[in-house]
Fold this protein.
Amino acid sequence: MHGPSVAGARSGRSRLGVLARWETLLVVAIAGLVVLGTLLSPFFLTPGNFSNLIAALMEVAIMALPMTLIIVAGEIDLSVESMAGLASSLIGFLWAAGVPLTAAIPLVLVVGALGGLLNGLLVARGRLPSLVVTLGTLALFRGLALIVLGPRGVSNFPPEFTALGFGYVPGTLIPWPFVIFLSLALVLGVVLHRTWIGRQTYAIGRNTGAARYSGVRVIRIRTALFVLSGLIAALAGIILTSRLSSARADAGAGMTLTVVTVVLLGGVNIFGGSGTIPGVALAVIAVAVMQNALRLASVTVEVQSIALGLLLILSVVIPNFAHQAKSAIDRVRGGRPPPADSVRRGEATTG
Amino acid sequence: MSDSGAAVATLSVRSRGQWLAVVARQRELSLVAIMIVLGGLVTLTAPQFLTVSNLSQVAVLAALIAVAAVGEALVVITRNVDLSVEATMGLVAYCVASLLERHALGTTGAIAFGLGLGLVLGMVNGIVVTVFRVPAIVATLGTLSIFRGIDYLVAGSHQVPLASLPDGFTNPARDSVLGIPIFVLVALGIVVIGSAVLRSTRFGRQLYAVGSNPEAAAILGIPSRLVVFTAFSVCGLLAGVAGVLYVMEFGTINGTSATGLVLAVVAAVVVGGVNIFGGSGTLVGAALGALFLGFIANALILVGLSQFWLQAIYGLVILLAVSADAIIVRRIQRATAARRVR
């Protein structure tokens, strides 16, 4: 746990203290929620329940991984939920048309990468704001999903396919999507924290201009990140279709909010330049445990969105206050004041 | 762009830059021109397009979106964004309908409550953004979820049917004065008052200043946070107005009413030529953007395309509008830069 967070902080601002504390805070929060859940229901701490609470959040968790890289690079991708819906829609359409799944799945993944490429080209080469571009593709991809499948659902998938989202690793209660999430987290964690691609991603997020003058291929990396995001969102859509054993055009609606919440709760700075994959993985567990505890307290899924929205805002407010408190202490001790937030905000919007 | 000092050598570059500047500044005119051409084409295939009843139906729905889009434009001009407008509209719509159903307040009381609620929700956004310094995108994505959650909590599975609203409450959606639908008059009134405020009051100029250069605005002593807070508050209030109009238009209201409308509102603002980087744009543009989208939606149905195409076309329209803005702005910059070099 400690190693990667050191790497993130080293390549991020000198915020080792705050980041380490943030991840410790998450562990404490998870422990508190587990105790609360156990008090609420004796079934909370059983392997079966844990397996369920993790499985229900895996599509969000998988999409949160590329989102982490994109937010570290100072951008955002709001279109992931619609890409998941388009993937679900396409897989249902192709299966209903008699295309074998071994051909349909790669095809859908290619469509995901192409959708990501569209975002990437408009943002990186066209220098358009990612907020508006991905808001546009949020509507565009969902619209395409509706055009492809309409209001119907396709549900007669073969058991080999539904086992992908619904089944467990033989002999255990570990759901397959969790295995996929862990492998992706491992790969992207190594890429972000141990390779030049990761270092350049942090550099772009901290100061795009400086990164460009230092020889970072800003356009290429930004485009690649959006392609990755589209590809993985399509994968999440396939897993969702498999887990629900039903393909629908409205699959994944509203998931972007949870994805962004998980990423920011994981300690990723919304202005870019800092954040770690292990932090985001911890946040996935925290959100899964929270949702499960709320469900055991018989709070409906719809009303849970209040908790999720609060969590999203608090995950920005708390580090802000921590940072302000820290700089106040530094000032009292006579240290050098940290750079003002407004400067970084400017970088993020014009970069 | 100054007119003096035109050298012959720079004439072609200049005139091109100026021509584009004219197009860019006249987004309102180009929108109207596109609508006239499109309208002509649609009328050829579907003659019922050009009837008074159809056009006023388009205008009434567009007016509802335009009211919310004017509020959104105020926020976008300050270089922020409000994604929670649809949740504000939905919550206000349900509360107003529910109050009317229970005869808790009079009709005027219920409407006043709805507008007050919209204002309060807008102020909440403003406080989260300016006091807690959460970026607008995160703050309003969060409040979108929170307001919608409250809507579910209040409404449960209950639906207020049209029949339990007081007699005549939904009439304003169909009535007109001097041949102009009441909804359109409301939207026009808001656009006229808002434009006057933006053009000739200190607050209006401060709004543009904060959006076009926050650092310079701060140096000039403009109370940026107060200006942004006010923009969010007014946006909430106008979303409240749109919520009340929503009840009048649709009558049957539940906890999911107005879901997904934020895309139409933001699309209207972007299409209307309000710069997403802040600092420029007009309320007339935002309202015309809403009319343009309503127009396209109507044309689609008349031409016989399924309504499933609508969302994809909204998305395409957003992408085209931001791309066009960026291209025009860059050409102007290049043209003026070329002139300066010579």
About this structure: The radius of gyration of chain A is 20 Å.
